[in-house]
Design goal:
alpha+beta, two-stranded antiparallel ribbon, 9 strands, 26% strand, globular
């Protein structure tokens, strides 16, 4: 992976552009966005974060397509952005697809691990590396309303608004700026 070229840009506009392209290319799926009305300036590599978000939305559309249409109803993806008080940018992608396996879900972040026939198993590994290089991480979660029986997944991408606190050229995990926790992209857990 190329080293990120970090510039201060509007993450809201970046997300809007990606969502727009996916809406046009997938009219059979409702893709909604919940974004601040004002720009949110952050230090990130627009190309790499766009690639990460594209991979996650692509996975969400494939998870929806994996369910027979008579069982799933209308496919829906929600993309949300939040700026946390601790200085992190958090992007949630929530779908009503087949969901994530309950056991060994974090293995999906390893290269060549896939649950889809014909999948390469590289998409989430690449996303994890991109977020790690930005000083952030990726979390593989159930939908927020899964306890009420809703099917689907929530993929959470996060990175510090100010950019990584150290260079991650060597591939080491970067620390979250406010928490002091190391976020291991392979298991999605702060330690």
């Amino acid at each position: 992976m190329p080293k990120p070229s970090l510039l201060r840009e509007d993450i809201v506009e970046t997300i809007r552009q990606i969502v727009f392209l996916w809406r046009v290319g997938n009219p059979e799926v409702t893709i909604e966005e919940s974004l601040p009305s004002e720009p949110v300036s952050a230090r990130f590599d627009r190309r790499l974060i766009s690639q990460a978000l594209t991979n996650v939305i692509k996975n969400a559309t494939e998870a929806i397509d994996a369910i027979p249409i008579e069982e799933r109803g209308h496919g829906r993806i929600d993309v949300r952005l939040e700026r946390l008080d601790d200085g992190r940018i958090v992007i949630d992608v929530i779908d009503n697809g087949k969901g994530l396996p309950a056991d060994q879900r974090q293995k999906l972040l390893e290269p060549y691990m896939t649950t889809r026939e014909g999948g390469t198993g590289l998409g989430l590994a690449i996303v994890g590396k991109i977020l790690e290089d930005h000083g952030g991480g990726i979390e593989l979660l159930d939908r927020p309303d899964a306890s009420s029986g809703a099917r689907g997944a929530r993929i959470r991408l996060w990175f510090p608004e100010a950019g990584p606190t150290q260079d991650v050229e060597d591939g080491d995990n970067a620390a979250s700026p406010a928490s002091g926790l190391n976020h291991d992209r392979r298991n999605g857990i702060g330690s």
